[in-house]
Design brief:
This protein is an alpha/beta fold. The chain is built from ten helices and ten strands. Strand 4 and strand 5 form a beta hairpin. The chain binds adenosine-5'-diphosphate and magnesium ion. The site of magnesium ion has 3 residues, from helix 1.
C-alpha cells in the first residue's frame, strides 16, 4: 500500500532584495507517496528547482519561506521547515536526497567515486566499519547498475562518462535508504539512450526501495516514460494535477495543452 512520505502544504517562497520582492512559489501543496514517481513539469523559471531547495533547506536568507513541509519517517512526522541547520544535515543525503542535472555537481573531482559513496555512508552511520561501508557501497553501485563495480570504485569522476557519473550520483543518493529522492532534471544533460536508461533505473529503484521520487523535468517525453502522477507548475503555481493518463489524454488547463502541443511540435522536428 502506498504511504505518504512527504507533504507540502501552502509552500510560499518570496525572494527579497533591498527594495524588491518577487513571489517565486505562491502557496503550492502536494504529497509524495512511497513507490511513486511524481513528475513536476513546467517551463524554465516556473519554480521547480526552488521547490526542491525549499524541501532540503538549501535556500539562503534572501528567500522567505512560509508553509509546512512534513517528512513522514516511520511513525514520526517532521516539519522540515522547523529544523536547525544541524538537524537538516542529518536529513539530507539520508532521509531525503537529491540528484542534479549535472552529475558533477554532486561529486568531488579529487576523490574516487567509491570513497565518496563510503563517506556518504559514514557521515550518517556511526555503527558501521569502513570495511562494511565499502561492501555496502559496492552493493549499491550494483543496484545503480554500474558495471565492473570493483574497477569503478577506484576511479575518479573524470574517468567516467556522463551516464556513469549520474549512476554514481544515484548510488550516493540511495545508499542511506532515503524515503524521498528529489531528481532535478536528472537526464537533461545526457544523450537520449543514456537518458532512457537512467529513467528505467528510477522506475526500478522506486519499486525495489519503495521510494517516493519527485522527478523534475520540462520534457513531457520523460513524464510519459516513467511518471505515475503529474503536477504542472506555472509561475510558481500549480495549474493542474492528475495521473499521467489524465494529463496526456484530457488535460484541463490551457497551459498544459500548450505544453503538450509544443512537445508534439518538437517531436516532429
Ligand atoms: N538564486 C536566485 N536568486 C534569485 N532568484 C532566483 C534564484 N534562483 C531562482 N530564482 C528565481 O526563481 C524563479 C524560479 O526558479 P527555478 O526554481 O530555478 O525555476 P525552474 O527550476 O522551474 O527552471 C525564477 O524566476 C528565478 O529567476
Ligand atoms: Mg530548475
Amino acid at each position: 500500500m502506498k504511504q505518504k512520505v512527504l507533504e507540502v502544504k501552502n509552500l510560499t517562497v518570496i525572494y527579497k532584495e533591498e527594495n524588491r520582492e518577487k513571489i517565486i512559489l505562491n502557496g503550492i501543496s502536494f504529497n509524495i507517496y512511497t513507490n511513486e514517481i511524481l513528475a513536476f513539469i513546467g517551463k524554465s523559471g516556473s519554480g521547480k528547482s526552488i521547490t526542491c531547495f525549499s524541501i532540503l533547506g538549501l535556500l539562503n536568507k534572501n528567500f522567505l519561506i512560509d508553509g509546512e513541509i512534513y517528512l513522514y519517517d516511520d511513525n514520526k512526522k517532521i516539519n522540515l521547515l522547523n529544523l536547525t541547520e544541524k538537524e537538516l544535515r542529518e536529513i539530507r543525503g539520508n532521509k531525503v536526497s537529491m540528484i542534479f542535472q549535472e552529475p558533477s555537481t554532486a561529486l568531488n573531482p579529487i576523490i574516487t567515486v567509491g570513497e565518496q559513496i563510503v563517506d556518504t555512508i559514514l557521515a550518517h552511520r556511526k555503527d558501521i566499519s569502513k570495511e562494511d561501508a565499502k561492501t555496502l557501497a559496492l552493493k549499491v553501485m550494483k543496484e545503480a547498475q554500474i558495471p565492473d563495480v570493483e574497477k569503478r570504485f577506484n576511479q575518479y569522476p573524470f574517468e567516467l562518462s556522463g551516464g556513469l557519473k549520474q549512476r554514481v550520483a544515484i548510488a550516493m543518493a540511495i545508499v542511506n535508504s532515503p524515503k524521498v529522492l528529489l531528481a532535478d532534471e536528472p537526464t537533461t544533460a545526457l544523450d537520449i539512450t543514456v537518458s532512457a536508461y537512467i529513467l528505467r533505473l528510477f522506475l526500478r529503484l522506486k519499486e525495489r526501495l519503495d521510494l517516493g521520487i519527485l522527478l523534475i523535468t520540462h520534457d513531457f517525453g520523460v513524464v510519459a516514460e516513467v511518471a505515475d502522477r503529474v503536477i504542472v507548475l506555472k509561475d510558481g503555481e500549480i495549474v493542474e494535477e492528475g495521473n499521467v493518463f489524465q494529463i496526456f489524454n484530457t488535460p484541463k488547463s490551457e497551459y498544459t495543452k500548450e505544453l503538450l502541443k509544443s512537445r508534439i511540435l518538437l517531436s516532429k522536428v
